[in-house]
Amino acid sequence: MREEPNLAPSAWSRAMAKYRQPIHSRSIFELTVTVAPFVAIWAVACWMLSISTALAMALALVNAAFLVRLFMIQHDCGHGSLFRSRRLCDWIGRVIGVITLTPYDVWRKTHAIHHATTGNLDRRGVGDMPTLTVTEYREKGWLGRALYRLIRNPVFLFGVVPFYTFFLQNRLPVHLMRSGWRYWLSAMGTNAAIGSALTLIVWLGGWDVVLFVFLPTMFLGAVAGMWFFYVQHQFEETSWQHEENWNIHEAALYGSSHYELPSVLRWITGNIGVHHVHHLASRIPFYRLPEVIEDHEVLAQTKRITLRQSLRCAHLHLWDESRRRLLSFAEARALSA
């Protein structure tokens, strides 16, 4: 790692060009070492049901790690960064989308909106976490405040919301109802494939497989995915600006975290913790993101948060425009005391 001057965000984006080229052999390898264990653990968990339901569930929960990694590979497909062929990326993404309960074309569209609007206070609402400013929260009535407190409660946010998002919301392209037939086809095609897969699972293994293997894997994977998506942008020193002051490169670099994780978690999450770099250059394959951090000390230290520090993020709720910090409800209340 070498030290470099702290470049402007737009300059960093241009500097990332050399990392954008996928290495096809590496992409195939990463896909293989994720899909093969996922299928193998699923098969062993199903077989284990005849011996011990508890052990089968334990394996299913372990398999959530490979489900998360599959989603990260699907994520790279959505950015066209896994292979040079856009068509190949799309079809791999669509197949994985059946496993992750996520209609690929719908997700790719909303995720593109997320990248194009992250940190913009005037363009909130698609592909992001509900976030109010301190002023907006104070202007709401008691019911509005109560609903927002419910939404931002960690139990609701990481318990109810993941289930709703992956099991219910993903079944219909609600946000894209007027955007054309393609997104309906994506959602309905994914639903049909999921329905067919579940029918086959019940036929071959019975409802126990659904209850003690399928659901634990999917739910824990959804919870983990929700946490990582949350902490990537909902940290104390993130960045939010109104349209007139907003810049996509600044929002990418300063509004996205460098979530420094233990090596095992980095592998499971496909290095998505290097999120500020990903937002600066979304075409970089996930397995090349560590190269960027190794080569650029400034980026390694920018918006860095550790696993321990990230736990506080679950208790941050409101954006303070004057102090440019994400605050807890208690901290926001103390401002007016």
Structural summary, described in words:
Helix content is 62%, strand content 4%. It has helices at residues 9-15, 24-48, 53-78, 86-99, 104-117, 134-139, 142-152, 154-168, 181-205, 207-231, 248-254, 263-268, 275-280, 289-295, 297-301, 307-310, 329-335; strands at 132-133, 258-260, 304-306, 318-320, 325-327. The strands form two sheets. Strands 1-4-5 form a three-stranded mixed β-sheet. The termini are far apart. The model has no long low-confidence stretch (mean pLDDT 93).
Topology:
Layout: H1 9-15, H2 24-48, H3 53-78, H4 86-99, H5 104-117, E1 132-133, H6 134-139, H7 142-152, H8 154-168, H9 181-205, H10 207-231, H11 248-254, E2 258-260, H12 263-268, H13 275-280, H14 289-295, H15 297-301, E3 304-306, H16 307-310, E4 318-320, E5 325-327, H17 329-335
Parallel strand pairs: 1-4, 2-3
Antiparallel strand pairs: 4-5
